[in-house]
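> Could you send the Dioxygenase prediction when you get a chance?

Sure thing. Input:
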Amino acid sequence: MEPVDLGDEERPGGITRKTLLKAALIGAPMSILAGTAAHASLARDVAVTGGPLLPTPFCDDDDEPTVEQIEGPYFKPNSPQRTTLPGNGTPLTVSGYVFGLSCQPLANVLLDFWQADANGAYDNVGFNFRGHQYTNANGAYKLTTIVPGLYPGRTRHIHVKAQAPNKPILTTQLYFPGEPRNNTDTIYDARLLMNVRTNGAGLEATFDFVLNVQGAPPSSSPSASPTTGPGGTWQAGRTYAAGDTVTYGGSTYRCLQGHTAQAGWEPPNVPALWQRIG
Ligand SMILES: [Fe+2]
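Output:
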């Protein structure tokens, strides 16, 4: 495998690169060997102690747009819906849960991932290493991909936009423990460290998102009843494909990503799914 570059410096707790590489060879979890300092706590663990969860921090490195400016050089809307991003590189899985502030699992959260390939390049023509998925009824997700390559100026990272139905988009990034550039990347945030362990020839990472959603999660079951209120052709329960257009509240919207509409995903509320065109 092509291991994550762990650097040559002494690790906190006296673990050397050599020790870590040896650990990788025998498949031991790096997070355990590197001590608690390198072990990012998961929201599901923190919740046991009680009290509200801290939301996952926002993180933006200017290679993706703000919410209002959806066409950025590296983020591309309309990524394919898929949980596996195929391509050559060190296999990596990222899995976990999406919670609200009260640790309630959030179903049907849109998670849109994008990352560099093994050489540190983004595909700005096609959709390599881009894909979106939705959390299941338990709030769980799983991404199968490769370890992203490094590119100038940044530490190793994976981009993601997370959006619960009818809620704002969280744009953030996930990081790898033990990366030398974590110390020099000004955008890097230790609260966004994944737990990473070796798994055969690849890496297995976990991360729990916490979205700024109060109380009980929205209903996860699609409603077949047409929406009432503002009016238009948009209907909960209908399946839309990218490119479809609907009207809602007197405006026209174009579908960016195929999905089955549900209450809470009215076009003005989900800019990741609908673009207003008139
Ligand atoms: Fe990036």
